[in-house]
Design a protein that fits this description.
By secondary structure, the chain is an alpha/beta fold. It has helices spanning about 25-30, 45-50, 75-85, 105-115, 125-130, 165-170, 180-185, 230-235, 255-265, 280-285, and strands at about 20, 35-40, 55-60, 95, 120-125, 175-180, 210, 245-250, 275. The protein has ten helices and nine strands. Helix 4 (about 105-115) links the parallel strand 4 and strand 5.
Length: about 290
């Protein structure tokens, strides 16, 4: 479907919050604005050093966002240290982009939401669109004056779901979107193709979940997000969601599902969307939880 959908200007696509997306033209015009900080976040840790948008800082999803010991995110103190290091304040507009059609860009933006920094935007088409347009890259790493950033306590209720939250969600017949591949969903594969198994002992999906692979939300040729009517067809007509639903999204570790979380929350305007970052690496290993195939 997505390959045949015309991608027009962001303001013309019918999004609930079109300001959450910016074009590469917008970035070229505003990349040096004092109150704008570009943030590159990739799966491939070598890409940033090979060349990035001038002025962009790097946030590494493993090194910068996760606790080094526990399977959890950094705490408030750690987040404040990160924010101060990249020279931002709570009022800074953060513009995220990266590889894999913005998997890790939306993941980083989602983590920032946990600490109350919701003034974020995503570059439509991500890193590859900037490259394909032949725009400027640099290997120079920018330095910004450290700031005195004071963050809110981490909010693990509004945008995040834990395993027990998902079990409660199931008891209420809540809506779930599994964004993995059909093979992961039906249990014939325990991990993404060409990726190692990250520890799941059982295959399948959470009961009642609908399978909407994350990539269906973007044009495969450009990486740009589909217009709102096509997204509504995908998530509402085909998968039974309603904007008033309380929705939980998941994948295997939360990165692909953060992409879908962004689509539902910002492009379609769903007010109640949570990302279950424990995802299948937790659910597929937990004793006693229900699984369907």
């Amino acid at each position: 479907m997505s390959a045949t959908v015309e991608i027009s200007g962001i303001q013309d696509r019918g999004y609930a919050f079109p300001e959450a997306l910016v074009s590469t033209d917008w970035v070229a015009e505003h990349q040096h604005d004092e109150n704008v900080r570009l943030i590159e976040s990739n799966e491939d840790p070598l890409l940033y050093s090979a060349g990035h948008i001038p002025g962009a800082v790097e946030i590494d999803w493993t090194r910068d966002l996760n606790d080094p010991l526990r399977r959890d995110y950094l705490d408030r103190s750690g987040f404040e240290s990160l924010a101060r290091r990249i020279g931002i304040t709570p009022d800074t507009t953060l513009v995220f982009y990266g590889d894999k059609n913005n998997w890790w860009a939306t993941y980083a933006a989602w983590v920032f939401h946990l600490f109350g920094h919701t003034n974020v935007k995503i570059i439509d088409g991500g890193r590859i669109k900037w490259l394909n347009e032949g725009r400027e890259l640099t290997k120079d790493v920018p330095t910004y004056a450290p700031t005195e950033y004071l963050a809110a306590d981490r909010d693990d209720a509004t945008f995040r779901a834990y395993r027990d939250d998902v079990l409660k969600h199931l008891s209420k017949a809540g809506k779930l979107i599994d964004v993995r591949s059909p093979q992961e969903f039906d249990g014939t594969r325990l991990h993404m193709e060409a990726y190692p198994n990250e520890g799941a002992l059982r295959g399948g999906h959470i009961p009642g979940a609908k399978n909407v692979p994350w990539a269906k939300a973007v044009n495969p040729e450009t990486g740009e997000f589909l217009p709102a009517p096509a997204l509504k067809e995908l998530y509402e007509t085909q998968s039974g969601l309603n904007p008033s639903d309380d929705v939980v999204v998941y994948c295997r570790i939360g990165e692909r599902s953060s992409h879908t979380w962004f689509v539902l929350k910002y492009l379609l305007g769903y007010p109640q969307v949570r990302n279950y970052d424990g995802s299948w690496t937790e659910w597929g290993n937990t004793v006693g939880v229900p699984i369907e195939r």
